[in-house]
Specification:
316 residues; alpha+beta; Jelly Rolls; Phage tail protein beta-alpha-beta fold; 3 domains; 7-stranded antiparallel beta sheet; 8 helices; 19 strands
Amino acid sequence: MRESPDKIEEDAARWVMRIDREGRGALAHELDQWLAGDSRRAGALLQAEAAWSILDRARLAPPRWDRRTPITSRRRLISIAVGGAAAAAAAVGGVALLSPGQTFVTTTGEIRRIPLRDGSTAAINSGSRLDVRFDDQVRRVRLTDGEVWFRVAKDERRPFLVEAGLVRIEAVGTAFSVRRRDDGVEVRVTEGVVEVWVDGVAGQAIRVPAGVSTFVSTGATFEKTTKRDPAEIERSLAWRTGWIDLAGETLAEAAEELNRYNTRKLYIDGDALGQERLYGTFRLDDPEGFAASAALSLDADVTSDAENIRLRRAEE
């Protein structure tokens, strides 16, 4: 019996929630089987993902669905957004996605998820600038500042090319992140394979597979390529859902990362305290809560005002 559109839409909403919770890589085989079962499912999933991104466009949305919210209510939220998006798109004859050229800028603490017009998606981190320019030959994206994670739709006729300073990253159908740092560009691959090279020396491109990260310095030198546990890379990308996931990073490193997302800055007084290591997950938009937890764990004191939060130990 042929599935009804309502049933397909409901199943697509379930898939979006599972992808958010478990990660697309872990569900790839099962998801491909579901998509292959009906040609209408791919479009329904794309609409549901677009609706989910719309629901998550607040300054920093709740990091993941509240587990106390009934499943039916969560699906209903997505369905409402899908319906609204479809109604708006009817006037122009299709799903309203990005125009061929568009620029996105995120402010401090803002994380955006956007569906691209080719079926790819992008999660844009705090303090980033992204220019998207698609044409018939190439899908070109320029990252001027910050960090972005892409899930690239397959299109062998049009490569997906990311420019970050002098660094170039090309993918066909894969998932990876690009982060511009003060001293270079870091690429982390979560699915598939990408090619990375420095502009002008494409003949020296390296292939970076899933579970591997590479760093290119501002001097256009490949400083290091590191094989990582997939879970480690996923931890480093916890910002996509509004979290910082620590597994032995120092307090100073955690404070530096949290300060990317908040105008109220966190400071650590004392080198010994700053080198203490932490474990656990914390909300990116709650530096005061993080400081309170760290102080309790590390036997430190917290002082704060409207602009700053400080952690210190009495003996330091």
